Amino acid sequence: MHLVQIANQSNRRVAFVEETYLRCLAGVASVYELAQECLRKDVSIPEYVGSLQVDESLHYDDVYSRRFIAHRSKPQSKDRR
């Protein structure tokens, strides 16, 4: 399963790639958040993603040309400085 984070000026989302489309997952803002929820629920990422609602489908090429973000986002640890 290929997951991507996409963003525009005000929103960040997670989507999975399905052929030429990105299927946006409802209520998921980062891959890190998704992975943390999988750990809490003790389920695999594909299993959990399969249980979530897709609330929007976007053409991959349109998103890649405008809103694709390559950086990883995770909360900064208070122990790291």
Q: Portion of residues in helices? A: 25-40%
| Residues in β-strands, percent | 25-35%
Order of helices and strands: EEEHHEH
For the report, how would you describe the main beta sheet?
4 strands, antiparallel
Give unreliable regions as ranges.
Answer: none
Number of helices: 3
Kindly state the number of beta strands: 4
What count of domains describes the coordinates? 1
Through-space gap between termini: 33 Å
Q: What best-fitting shape do the alpha-carbon axes yield?
A: globular
Gyration radius from CA atoms, angstroms: 13 Å
Mean pLDDT: 84
Strand-pairing-aware structural class? alpha+beta
Short description:
Helices cover 31% and strands 28% of the residues.
Q: What this model shows, in words?
A:
- The protein is of the alpha+beta class and 81 residues long.
- The chain has one domain (3-66).
- 31% of the residues lie in helices and 28% in strands.
- It is built from 3 helices and 4 strands, in the order βββααβα.
- The chain has helices at 31-41, 45-51, 60-66, and strands at 3-7, 12-18, 21-25, 54-59.
- Strands 1-2-3-4 form a 4-stranded antiparallel sheet.
- A hairpin with a 4-residue loop joins β1 (3-7) and β2.
- The radius of gyration is 13 Å and the shape is globular.
- The termini are far apart.
